[in-house]
Amino acid sequence: MAANQLLLLPELLEHILLDLTSMRDLLFAQKVCRMWKAVIDTSQGIQKALYFTAGDVADVIQDGPEAYREGTKLDCIFNPLLVDCGGYYHPKLVRKAAHISAGRMLITQPPRQASAEFDIKELFDTSATRRSYYESSRLVTIEAGKTFLALVQECEAAVKQVKSQGHKLCKDKRMQLA
């Protein structure tokens, strides 16, 4: 009973939640009860740890590949929920960015200019019966402090522009860190 009473203190709960070692655990903790969600939504420290507001390297939970670089001083950390170990943005998150909390997240802490790259195939008619493709890539950049959704929307606008010029996109049009 006393343990339940202690968890009703928002300040103590905030410290406990900030000690979680995974961002996923912190995101799932919002579903425990309304009070926990309210603490997570209103805590500056937790909002920085989840990349919802601007912070510093020390403010984030390091459960991505950067966490294993011991002894290295990093000036920024990529959001491990958005970027996989190969440097690609997770395709499911790209498709659903407008409808999930990942769309509101910053790409790095502290916020930095972010870029994404995607491949296109440019179609050239070399003769009436033969077509050849030239592969290239396009780079899209957003300014510091913009969210993942802003980067996805910039990429979608660039894709539309490429298609309107008569180019075809490669089947693998994953967004990659640039």
The gist of it:
By secondary structure, this protein is of the alpha+beta class. The chain has seven helices and six strands; from the N terminus they run H-H-H-H-H-E-H-E-E-E-H-E-E.
Provide structural commentary.
The chain is of the alpha+beta class and 178 residues long. The protein contains seven helices and six strands, in the order H-H-H-H-H-E-H-E-E-E-H-E-E. Strands 3, 4, 5 and 6 form a four-stranded antiparallel beta sheet that branches. A hairpin with a 5-residue loop joins strand 3 and strand 4 (131-142). Helix 2 packs across helix 4 (34-42). The longest helix is centred in the last third of the chain and has 17 residues, at 148-164. The chain is elongated, with a radius of gyration of 20 Å. This is F-box domain-containing protein. Residues 3-49 form the F-box domain.
SSE order, one letter for each helix or strand: HHHHHEHEEEHEE
* First-last Cα distance: 52 Å
General shape: elongated
Strand runs, count: 6
Total DSSP helices: 7
* Rg estimate, integer Å: 20 Å
Helix content: 25-40%
The secondary-structure class comes to: alpha+beta
Residue ranges: pLDDT <50 for 5 or more in a row?
64-69
Assess the beta-strand content as a share of residues.
15-25%
Summed over residues and divided by their number, the pLDDT gives a mean of: 77
Characterize the largest beta sheet: strand count, sense, and whether it forms a barrel: 4 strands, antiparallel
Give the SSE map:
Elements: H1 2-6, H2 10-18, H3 23-29, H4 34-42, H5 44-49, E1 77-78, H6 91-96, E2 108-109, E3 114-125, E4 131-142, H7 148-164, E5 168-169, E6 176-177
